[in-house]
Amino acid sequence: MSANLVIAPEQLQIDPALLAQHPVASLVIQLDQIHKTYSMGDVEVHALRGISLTIREGEFVAIMGTSGSGKSTAMNIIGCLDRPTSGTYFLDGHEVSGLSKDERADLRNRKLGFVFQGFNLLPRTSALENVELPMLYAGVETVERERRASEALYAVGLEGREQSQPNQLSGGQQQRVAIARALVNNPALILADEPTGNLDSRTSIEVMEIFQRLNREQGITLVLVTHEADIAQYAQRVVIFKDGKIRKDYPVIEQRDAAEELKTLPEIEED
Amino acid sequence: MGLMMIIRVAFRALVRNKMRAALTMLGIIIGVSAVIAMVSIGQGAKASVQAQIESIGTNLLFVSAGAQNLGGVRSGTGDSGTNTLTVEDLEAIKREVPSVSMVTPTVNARSQLVFGNQNWNTSVQGVSEEYPQIRKWLVQSGDFFTEADVRNAARVIVVGQTIADNLFPGMDPIGQTLRVADLPFRVVGVMARKGQDAQGRDQDDLAFAPYTTVQKKVLGSPRVQVAFASAISENATYTAQQQITELLRQRHKLTPNEPDDFTVRNMSDVADAANETNNIMTLLLSSIASVSLLVGGIGIMNIMLVSVTERTREIGIRMAIGARSSAVRTQFLIESIVLSLTGGFLGIVLGLIVSFVIPSLLGWPTLVSTLSILSSVIFSAAVGIFFGYYPARKAAALDPIEALRYE
User: Fold this and answer.
1) Nearest residue of B to residue A100 by CA position?
2) How many domains, in total, are found in chain A?
3) pTM across the whole model
4) B160-217: per-residue pLDDT in tens?
5) Domain that residue B171 falls in
6) B397, A101 in Cβ contact below 8 A?
7) Which of B321, B327, B400 sits opposite A134 (nearest CB)?
């Protein structure tokens, strides 16, 4: 495992065919020559034109790109919501590109956590119940479920708000409930799709602080999709999509530290 | 994901939308309660008819003059123009049919009863002294007339309670003399109160006199329209019916291919006819009520379809975090079954309340049937499954990517 960690991501991408034959456990994501083509009537739209990408365990990667760059399609494939037209995809060491709808649903439940731009919490449902939802589908017992949901809410700093419903929570708090929900089944990967898109700058930093803390303290692998360059600076590595291909893939030289930045910002009472 | 979990999820989703759930259930509530109330009214009518028939006596036989054959249904006309039944026939029945214990003719005279300055138009029935035993209807005060009174065509009369109340207000009618067709009759007894019959006629608005007296002095005709006979036991009624028929055919000298010129019926036949009428009424009323159940089911389907569209995003979230299509389908199906079953249970409660209120409100007897409750439960569950399946399938077929993007 430690041997793999010293290999730079650039090196890993040199021989993806070899990796495809020998999936490495510590690689959370291995995409190899992923193509995605949609047919709209007679016209074929090539959303992805041969994407190869590897993400190691414990990495914090930001995916950037304009709309139409293919980053959303890539997100859907990485998130097992969609299947590639061709290519192979190893998630946590398992080939998943050929799985059925139900198998992908199970996989999303066990291996993936989603955080969305619009929070996507169930309305008129308490924070605790929202966080319990993935465990309901995983068949976790009631007592265990409540314990883990409370822990996850604690981890995102929402202790005491367990019974609050989404409309009683601020945007930042709602996003933290969503992060707790993404965390609660101990996924191999958390996918955050424009998680700060609906938040003001201070709340955005607060959310990034949670992501950075989870990444550093618990070693959680994070993939963040954003179009804001400054938000991407909180990640360790940036992948830029353009026209269905990866244009750039580089490590962040001066990574921003959300916790440090928050200290310099004046304290605002959140209700 | 276990079924219990899905049921819990479905309940939570319904509780989140209490008002809508309540309105959706309304159709089923009304349908089920209407079915239960209608069936209980039908059953109540049936039970009261049966109770009346039992109070009349199940070993009672009717013999009437003439025969009617309408569409295969034979019934006695009791027509006053028919001369086919005579007192001699009835005496022969009593004498020669071993399974018959008592016989009374009934000759009916519509007349004006006059007492002092009071008068009362009623039906005077000419019967024999055995009438009270045959009809299981006894006198309340005084005595019924005797065999001697019948033999002598005595001018004695026994009145019903309604006549006693109207002609003799505040006094004892026994021993008084009233006039029937300008002839004086001595009141010897007052019948016990009997109330209304199944057709709502006042059975206490009757007076009884010896049939001989009515025939000779009131009607001036020896005709007998109807007779009552009593079989020796309940089991003997069919035998008695057969034997009376044979005897009368013989006495009337009917050849084998001539139809009967009289009709013999027993109470079971009458009960069967009444039951059949009631069953048809019950079936008719409850099938009309079932239509509202069907409409209620369509209401559920409508709301479930709206709900699937409205909750597209929720479905997307559930699928994204790992709900299989089958779990989503089961959830929506269970929501619809929970709606219809809860509606069904509330409908049963409402139906029971209605069934208990109707007797005191409208004066109709009701009898709640367990079968109607049981079938309401099964039917409402079936409505939930049938009308919930299509919306549930629609929900399960959603694509999570599209569903998450839905605004």
Assistant:
1) B324
2) 1
3) 0.69
4) 988 888 888 888 888 888 888 888 999 999 998 887 766 667 888 889 999 998 888 8
5) 104-234
6) no
7) B321
